[in-house]
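Lay summary. Proteins are chains of building blocks that fold into shapes, and those shapes determine what they do. In this project we predict the shape from the chain. Here is one chain we studied, written as its sequence of building blocks.
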Amino acid sequence: MKAFAKLVAGLCLLMAALAMPVHADTGQPLLLRNVSILDLDGEQADLAPGMSVLIENGRITKLAPAGEIEPDTATRVVEGDGRVVMAGLVDMHVHIWDRASLGAYLAHGVTTVRNASGMPLHLRLASKIEAGSLAGPRLLTTGPILNSPGPNQQINHQFVTTAEEARAAVRSQHEQGYRQLKVYSNLTREAYEALLEEAASLDMTVMGHTPEGVRKKGMPAELPFEIAFEEILDDGLVTIEHVESIVWHGLRDRHDEAAARALAKRIAAANVPVDATLLAFYNLLRVAETKGEYLGRKGTGLMNPLLVATSQAEYDRWSNEDVPRNRAAFEFYKLMTKYLSEEGVLLVAGSDAGIFTNVPGMSLIDELELLEEAGLDRLEVLRAATINPAIALGEEAIAGRVAEGQRADLILLDADPTADLATLRSVSAVVAGGKFHDRAALDAMLVEAAEHDVGRTQANLVEALEAQGTDPAALGL
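And here is the predicted shape, written in a compact code that computers can read:
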């Protein structure tokens, strides 16, 4: 299906990456002195102690032994005292409802996020962060989710059924300023094929759930999907989201190990990156296992209260779900993730933070621990949140590593995360777009992130619905 879109999308990503500006306001030059630089780019991780990192205009301009860089009087010097410096973490699947949550990501070492359900709010936030007038992770965003009516529809989706509707929706999103599209599982074949063609003509990229077509009674056990999973593999998707969706669509929800291994081989051969988001299902499972108590665990105060209020029916459902059946499903999702890794699929880390009970910031660390539990080695896990996203986004020339010429998105740690992933739960400091944030500043961001404005969140949603032609009043907003 539209194999040419893959080449076009890849070229567009590379061109965009090379042309990407750094923050306009990056403050004074910064020198991180006497640090240990963690390099994740080789077959094995390499830790180089006694180094200094010079940062100017939002870029890493020089790496050298600690005594070889003499700062001028305009440079801010931060003594590293041997702390580990590594590339900032990337969360490839989040849902941001209001600006309040931005600090929660930075406070956990997440320096780039990809928002997977766009609103006009996100375009404004991204511009302010890039300009240096707002502290937050670099914000990438898709437009509103494109879907057709069906069992997986949600009120914030932009619904298209025909080719004409799909083309119009893509053009509208492009005119609003979005350059990435997110597709969803109920999309009809006609709408999906049209939006792929329109996206290619406008140099827009596509990610998301794999579209299945119209869901009919008996699917998937008795009837195949209208759009076969294999048809999607040459469509140029930047990433396929959710390993449980791959099992559902690609295996017709069969927990067949041989078929899973074969499917992983086909995905690898097609060179399509996958964002497993194991945490998305794991948190559902934990709510079931604890009869809802998990919903009140530490950190959930960072969840947007409007989202929490509208999720009550889902909370109630999962508090009473079948635990053994869902535990077995989760174990298979981990196995599928392991197969994807073993067969050479490029895996990126995403948490689905911001929905259900997936807490902004800390959820990415949860996801990394689940990837390790699934069987990925420590280096693979860390690459999934650093180098691999840069590769998937066509940004490996400017992001994902601690190297000269790279964006200055870094985290400082008290210990080596290749020895213990738990180190990531106590970030010492963050450099985002060249700006230094110490632990005290990060803690202040966490406090602010828990101070929600429900009215402002509702206004964000109303604006988004109106922008995509939906009447908010008809939905009770």
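What the prediction tells us: Residues 2-25 have pLDDT under 50 and may be disordered.
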